[in-house]
């Protein structure tokens, strides 16, 4: 993580996302810009949380580490999602991993600054409550996708969720073993499913990446998209 205090750049992101009224003067003076590289862990399961963060650029995936060593996909975070809100309220350690899918930028407020004042700031508190509600709704929906849809649909949804709208090339940064864990399946089943999508001319494998040949079919196959 790289952190800077650049008032001009901070104000640029605040105006870009129309959140000028969200921060009072005391909080605004403590805002920092936090930069994360692709694949960097923003939160680590069981780690200390130092900031309340507001996503202003980029995308990250959220997954939990189970006691049996497996991983489980929970959610995706993007612009204006918040991180650290639950930990601020409960004073707990991070309960999941948050990993940058692409370079990410967050507005960060040190939790030690907020501990004794956030409950008096109605605008910020309402925003955090709304954000928590939206994440709970998304998490429930994503859990339903994990339980109720076949792997082909879950994989299509995952590819769309991690993809870049400006590119049809999908390059998996993780091993297929990790992806199979995130999607709750075996490596062999995942490989068969990827090959089936290639046989259907939806994907095409090229060296270490896949190209989307038919985005509409992939989207139709996904049905519900991880959000």
TrEMBL record:
Pfam families (alphabetical): cNMP_binding (PF00027), HTH_Crp_2 (PF13545)
Residues annotated as domain HTH crp-type: 149-216
Domain Cyclic nucleotide-binding: 15-135
Keywords: DNA-binding, Transcription, Transcription regulation
One Gene Ontology term of the molecular function aspect: DNA-binding transcription factor activity
Alphabetical list of Gene3D superfamilies matching this protein: Jelly Rolls
GO annotation, cellular component aspect: cytosol
InterPro entries reported for this sequence: cNMP-bd_dom, cNMP-bd_dom_sf, Env_Response_Regulators, HTH_CRP, RmlC-like_jellyroll, WH_DNA-bd_sf
Domain of life of the source: Bacteria
Protein name, entry field: Cyclic nucleotide-binding domain-containing protein
Source organism of this protein record: Clostridium sartagoforme AAU1
């Amino acid at each position: 993580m790289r952190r800077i205090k650049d008032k001009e750049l901070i104000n640029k992101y605040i105006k870009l996302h129309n959140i000028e009224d969200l921060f009072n003067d005391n909080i605004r003076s403590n805002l920092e810009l936090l930069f994360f590289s692709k694949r960097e862990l923003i939160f680590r399961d069981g780690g200390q949380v130092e900031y309340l963060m507001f996503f202003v650029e980029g995308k990250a995936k959220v997954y939990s580490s189970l006691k049996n060593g497996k991983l489980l996909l929970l959610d995706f975070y993007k612009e204006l999602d918040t991180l650290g809100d639950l930990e601020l309220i409960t004073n707990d350690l991070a309960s999941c991993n948050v990993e940058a899918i692409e370079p990410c930028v967050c507005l960060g407020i040190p939790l030690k600054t907020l501990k004794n004042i956030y409950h008096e700031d109605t605008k910020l508190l309402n925003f955090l409550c709304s954000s928590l509600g939206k994440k709970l709704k998304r998490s429930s929906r994503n859990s339903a996708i994990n339980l109720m849809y076949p792997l082909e649909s879950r994989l299509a949804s995952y590819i769309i969720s991690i993809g870049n709208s400006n590119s049809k090339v999908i390059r998996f940064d993780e091993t297929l073993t990790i992806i199979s864990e995130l999607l709750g399946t075996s490596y062999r089943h995942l490989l068969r499913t990827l090959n089936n999508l290639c046989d259907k001319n939806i994907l095409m494998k090229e060296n270490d990446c896949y190209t989307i040949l038919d985005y509409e079919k992939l989207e139709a196959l996904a049905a519900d998209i991880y959000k």
